[in-house]
Structure formats: C-alpha cells, structure tokens
Amino acid sequence: MTSRIEIEPARLPAEGSHAWLHLNGQCIALFQAAGRYYALDDRCPHQGASLAAGKLSGATVQCPAHGLRFDLNTGCMLSMPSVRVATFPIHIEAGKVYLSLPNQDLPT
C-alpha cells in the first residue's frame, strides 16, 4: 500500500536542479532532469551523504562524498547495479505533481 502526496509547486525543483522533501522523518531527494521529476532516498548507501547535494548529469546523480553515480530511474549505482537507493514514483495529473511513498501513516 502506498500514500500519494501532492508536492506543492513552490517545492518543485527547476530543470537541472534538486530539492529536499522531509516527509515523516525521511529525507527524499527530488530532481528535475530533461523535463521529468525523479525522487529517491537522499542517503547514499556508502556512507549516507546527501545525494541531492551531488552533481546532476542527465538522469544520473553523483554522490558528493565519494563520487559514486546513481541512475535516477532505477536508483542503481552505475558501476555496481546490485547497490541501489530506493526510488519513489512521481505522477503528474491535471498539472499537479504527486509522489508515491510506501504507506507509513504520512499526511496526505
């Protein structure tokens, strides 16, 4: 089961940029690249650095701490696809942007 949360327009990142969302104690990195929004767990699985603070290149983000690169579509590390961060679906309906998260009693 998932919770669908509308993201306020003021919180959406500009093209080629990022934003942080703090929902129910979880930090989510939100990116916009090539006109699409991507959401993933903000913590690098290596040592927990913020991925939102990393360098964005197309649909890839590079961790600022040690340079590991992750695919925004899958959350997989490019050099070792078995290592990944959680990704969260983004849906756009009637001009509104929604984020789907595993159901954790989040406000809707």
UniProtKB/TrEMBL annotation:
Keywords: 2Fe-2S, Iron, Iron-sulfur, Metal-binding. The keyword Chaperone does not apply. GO terms for molecular function: 2 iron, 2 sulfur cluster binding; metal ion binding. It comes from the Bacteria. The keyword Cell membrane does not apply. Residues 4-99 form the Rieske domain. Pfam families: Rieske. Signal peptide: none annotated. PANTHER family: 3-PHENYLPROPIONATE_CINNAMIC ACID DIOXYGENASE FERREDOXIN SUBUNIT, FERREDOXIN-RELATED. This is (2Fe-2S)-binding protein. The lineage of its organism: Bacteria, Pseudomonadati, Pseudomonadota, Betaproteobacteria, Burkholderiales.
